[in-house]
Amino acid sequence: MSFSWTDITLEEKRRALEELADVKELFASRNWFPGTSGNLSIRIGDFQPEQFYFAVTASGKDKTKRTAEDFLFVDPYGKAAEATNLKPSAETLIHCEIYRLTGCGAVFHVHTVFNNLISEYYGEQGSVPVQGIELIKAFNIWEENAAIHIPVLPNYADIASIAKLVPGVLNERVPGILLRNHGIYAWGRDVFEAKKHLEAFEFLFETTYRSLLLKSSR
């Protein structure tokens, strides 16, 4: 069945914008958007691999403030779905690729000190190894002493070049990708799950960083 922008209801749009505003406010209170960085998105309506829409944070906005021009709606290619003066972040292309490949319901991207330090430390390896930390269970991984590898992609200036690399590193067990010395993209079936995954990743990054410091001080 075909699906188009006109199939999206006003209620779906309103709900998506409210959810984005709430989660943006929460993450801003944690200082996860320094200098207008980061971007958040929520998919709306039905999903088909090449036919979907999502609400995303507008480029260059102060995310500590709540205004009527914080978000816009885009299509599967990151283009505005309706007339607007707002501009999506160039990084919206990465959101597009994650939605297309996973069918998820929300994608959150934030910049923190710990995800920057860890992504740089393990950048040459191409992934961050994590094992035996309780918060791995947030990804529905329950085995004893579980181990995961969180992908790290190069932080090219050309965002389209990064987006092309996403399919090669996706792992259905690990709902996140780091950009080296940049930030984390985390996703989930809905806002709640994407938020849970992002918080778990940030805990893992801080724990890993502090563990490295302890080992180096011995």
Automatic annotation (TrEMBL):
Keyword hit for S-adenosyl-L-methionine: no
GO biological process annotation, one example: L-methionine salvage from methylthioadenosine
Reactions this protein catalyses: 5-(methylsulfanyl)-D-ribulose 1-phosphate = 5-methylsulfanyl-2,3-dioxopentyl phosphate + H2O
Gene Ontology cellular-component annotations: cytoplasm
Source organism, top-level taxon: Bacteria
Residues that bind Zn(2+): H109, H111
SUPFAM superfamilies referenced in this protein's UniProt entry, alphabetically: AraD/HMP-PK domain-like
Keywords, in A-Z order: Amino-acid biosynthesis, Lyase, Metal-binding, Methionine biosynthesis, Zinc
Cofactor: binding details: Binds 1 zinc ion per subunit.
Domain Class II aldolase/adducin N-terminal: 18-209
Cofactor: Zn(2+)
Gene Ontology MF, one: methylthioribulose 1-phosphate dehydratase activity
Any Pfam family the entry gives: Aldolase_II
Enzyme Commission code: 4.2.1.109
Pathway(s) it belongs to: Amino-acid biosynthesis; L-methionine biosynthesis via salvage pathway; L-methionine from S-methyl-5-thio-alpha-D-ribose 1-phosphate: step 2/6
Function description: Catalyzes the dehydration of methylthioribulose-1-phosphate (MTRu-1-P) into 2,3-diketo-5-methylthiopentyl-1-phosphate (DK-MTP-1-P).
Family, as annotated: Belongs to the aldolase class II family. MtnB subfamily.
PANTHER family (UniProt xref): METHYLTHIORIBULOSE-1-PHOSPHATE DEHYDRATASE (PTHR10640)
Protein name (Swiss-Prot/TrEMBL): Methylthioribulose-1-phosphate dehydratase
Organism: Paenibacillus kribbensis
Gene: mtnB
